[in-house]
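re: ur question from earlier - yeah i can do the single chain one, its not a big deal. heres the input i used so u can compare w yours
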Amino acid sequence: MRVVTLFLLSLMLSFSLFSQERKDVGFTLGSSYYTGDFNPGTPLYSPSPAFGLLFRYNLSEMYSLRASLVYGGLKGAAPSDSYIPSVKRSFSTSVIGAEALFEMNFLKFNTTDHFKNNFAPYVLLGVGGAIVNGKVIPQVPFGVGVKYALGGRIAIGAEWKMHKTFSDSIDGYVNPSATSNSIVHNNDWFSFVGLFVTYRLFNGDFVCPAYR
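and the output i got, formated as tokens:
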């Protein structure tokens, strides 16, 4: 719950910064998938539809703060030759993830200029919480992406976010050999791959010189 509280405080702080025209809002659409005991490491394993919302406050043309909310499905099944000693051989659930992120561009990026600084790859890292199987669990999101400014305050992009959770119960199977010392290695993950569209919000007639 502490992580979710921090996320909400970060979101409220972002919305209170109305001194400059630097705020983007948008939505994401793509697929979510799970990594854990039933899927040790296959990317895009049993993908499910996912969608979300995002708010970005641009500190500069290189750095941004971001709040995201995503909903998606997670599912998996143990192969017939699996070593997993479990009666439950498959699972299907949903996840709601909320997070506060720091986003760093590798190139200068300006949503309002289609002809200059209109493309940038980026990396992101943050903290957050997720609701899975009725439980709130902490998670650490990180990922990579690219974005492109179409002009007219609209930008599009694609990103891949991975979410390291601190729970081994997403798939309903808890490794019987797990101990308190194995928290890093035995926990489940969920990931999101998709596209997004954002729009730069107006702020009256004031535009920061860096964004003209």
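Confidence is low (pLDDT under 50) at residues 14-19, 180-184. not sure if urs matches, ping me
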